[in-house]
UniProtKB/TrEMBL annotation, chain A:
Lineage: Bacteria, Pseudomonadati, Pseudomonadota, Alphaproteobacteria, Rhodobacterales
Name assigned to this protein: ABC transmembrane type-1 domain-containing protein
Organism: Aliiroseovarius zhejiangensis
Main location: membrane
Classification via InterPro entries: AA_ABC_transptr_permease_3TM (IPR010065), ArtM/GltK/GlnP/TcyL/YhdX-like (IPR043429), MetI-like (IPR000515), MetI-like_sf (IPR035906)
Segments crossing the lipid bilayer: 40-61, 119-137, 157-178, 223-242, 249-270, 290-316, 328-352, 364-384, 421-446, 466-486
Keyword Lyase: no
Automatic annotation (TrEMBL), chain B:
UniProt keyword annotation of Transmembrane present: no
Family matches, as InterPro entries: Bact_solute-bind_prot3 (IPR051455), SBP_3_CS (IPR018313), Solute-binding_3/MltF_N (IPR001638)
Superkingdom of origin organism: Bacteria
Pfam families associated with the record: SBP_bac_3
Keywords (A to Z) from UniProt: Signal, Transport
Record domain Solute-binding protein family 3/N-terminal: where: 33-262
Ranges in a coiled coil: none
Protein name: Amino acid ABC transporter substrate-binding protein
Source organism per UniProt: Aliiroseovarius zhejiangensis
Entries under Gene3D superfamilies matching the protein: Periplasmic binding protein-like II
Family indicated by similarity: Belongs to the bacterial solute-binding protein 3 family.
Signal peptide range: 1-21
Amino acid sequence: MSDLSYVRAEMLPERAPPASQVGFVGWARQNLFNGVGNSILTVLSLIFIWYVVSFLLSWAFSPTWNSASLSECREIFGAESGHHAACWGVINDRWQQLLFGFYPNGSEEGTSDLRWRPILAFLLLFVAVTPVLFNMISRRMNWVLLCAVLGLTSLYLGGALGIVVGLALIAAGAAIGYKALTADKTARAAEIEAGAKRLPNPLIFSAIYPFIAPWLLWGGSLWLPIGAALGFVIGYFVFRFLAPIAGSLVGMIVAVLVALVWWLLLTVGFADLMQSIIPIGLEPVESRDFGGFMLSITIGVVAIACSLPIGIVLALGRQSDLLIVKALCVGFIEFIRGVPLITLLFVASTLLNIFMPPGTNFDIILRVLIMVTLFAAAYMAEVIRGGLAALPRGQYEAADALGLDYWKAQRLIIMPQALKISIPGIVSTFIGVFKDTVLVSIIGLLDPLGLSNAIRADQAWNGVVWELYGFIALLFFIFCFSMSRYSMYLERRLRTDHR
Amino acid sequence: MKKTVFLGALTVAGMAAGASAAATLDDVKARGKLNCGVTTGLVGFAAPDANGKWEGFDVDFCRAVAAAVLGDANAVEFVPTTGKTRFTALASGEVDMLARNTTWTLSRDVDLKFDFVGVNYYDGQGFLVSKEMGVSSAKDLDGATVCIQTGTTTELNLADFFRANNISYEPVPIETNAEGQQQYLAGACDTYTTDASGLAATRATFENPQDHVVLPEIISKEPLGPLVRHGDNEWADIVRWTLNALISAEELGITSTNIGELSAAPGDNPEINRLLGTEGNLGEMLGLDADWAKRAIMAGGNYGEVFAKNIGESTPIALARGLNAQWKDGGLIYSPPFR
């Protein structure tokens, strides 16, 4: 007999799976056309999507970018009668207004284009929040970023000084960046171990930023923000001096009082005095000139940044055993949550105006900022209270057992966990607050929505609706979507459990 | 007891605010700028252009007052106000005057404590319908659906009109003019009603304006005019006579082109001389200089020029002068004499 055998002696080579099971076809068969019912649903959905998308695209792609008025747009697509298409000329004409409102743009005689200031403030915002929000970027890269932003700004401002400073900054940034990119991490760690000097912590800039940004936006004397910052310094030194003598509570109260006295009574005088000795400043811009997305972002960022700490304090106060503190916090939260934001804005815009002594000029944007911040803080407090309530009792007891005092326990054990739990809620509140900023159009501030109405009041653009709202919606979507993605990133980064 | 204290505090605050209103002219001069309340945007009456410069019929009046008082037509801070914030903005002193197509009514004049200094536009509520409907009079609108802005006097006027004519209608409430345009064009309502000037502006934006028509019935009186706070009569006089100067200028044939010539030396017409300050001391009586009216007229032209430039028949809105013609031409625009 020959060597017939029924068992293979060697393995067959692996063959590719059948074409119908892999790749796009396989995926489609498995997910879209698996069974009659699903196939019908898929086809119907595709037809629906095609219908919507083809309509949207044929509407959005229209050669009207350079048209000067709605009637000109109609002439452009007038040849195809009954064809509806977007009239993008309005965005071309007004996008700068939608972004900056009435911020001086140099169009009026005797004024210069100051719009670099909000842009710089916006870019510096990213430099300032990066070390707070992300830990993936190294200390040195953060300084590179700062050098690049400042360098480009001084190049843009021009003049011999501007160009020299700009080039120097960019060179410095490039040098730091080159070193950071070429040296690997372990070598750098060894260097630091050996006592090499590190660059200063970028959080220093983040701490300075809240004083720089208003100065850039509103202009005026540089000594005013410096005076405001000095208030914190004075308060800190008073606390340091008093705490060992009179106890930390008394020290804290006195420090806050001294700082308040400085801010309310002395800062302006100090700024005027210094200004008369060494005048440094930017051209002042009135709040009334703020508008468009610049206004939304200003209100949104301030409300977001201030509402979180205030919210934490309120949430802790609500859980406190001290009767008066608790009553104040509960009263505040429930009152603010019990009234609509619009009511608060009306109070800010009209009632305060009537109650204030005549002649006081309490800036309308400042009033709105305070109201929106208080509103957001009340909601934030409840979100954080949810996080606090979700912590097991054992965590509090463990903190006590370790002998930590109240603030240390909060800072080291309770808050990190409670805040982590509340991230989705916190970010939702942030997004909500940012979108709520459009309500200021009701009290006559020209935010993007208010401006869209003002733009339609121009004879050339009366009747344009979807293009403006689409543009505004797109910009809002970009901001809100980024915030939402960031919250997901943060949740992933902080996930310490082993699910 | 507590309530009384609170009310007392309110009264004191209110009185203090009232007292502050005393010397608006001095405040404006010290500030170097006129704070003028305008709408947040109404076609032809007030709107910012792409550079943020405000333009329009009401805006030009603000500029005329600024020119008369401060000598610079651009020394105006335009404060956009909404229908809800306008009166508090004026009462609290945030703005020195309102030029914001506000209807002169008794309650606003008396109860809200404002002074309407005159009428710069006589408006009235009308109806916009499509020609297809075949309606030639508002009285044929029995059973029609009507787009109507909520919370305005137009809503009340509408109810009055239909009740008086014993016909019925179905309201479609809308919030803004833009919404009204969209709803009307989409066929959600048979007719859209608001001030006739607004209807004309709305109609001008349609793709085929000739298919739509504003019905002849005007069902309400809407005298629109600038207003100031009660209690500062000197300031009210200045604003009132600036308006009258623009109106008289048209009547007397003073335009922005010939004003240089007419004001150079006293001419034959004594009223022109008094108005332009080449004779008499009318400016001094107002607390201004002799050239005040000349500057006000040069800011944007006389009443007719301002009208023609912003809302007149050469603009897309194409409003006829109608009631707003000079009294000599059969309209209601009439200025007391400059004497």
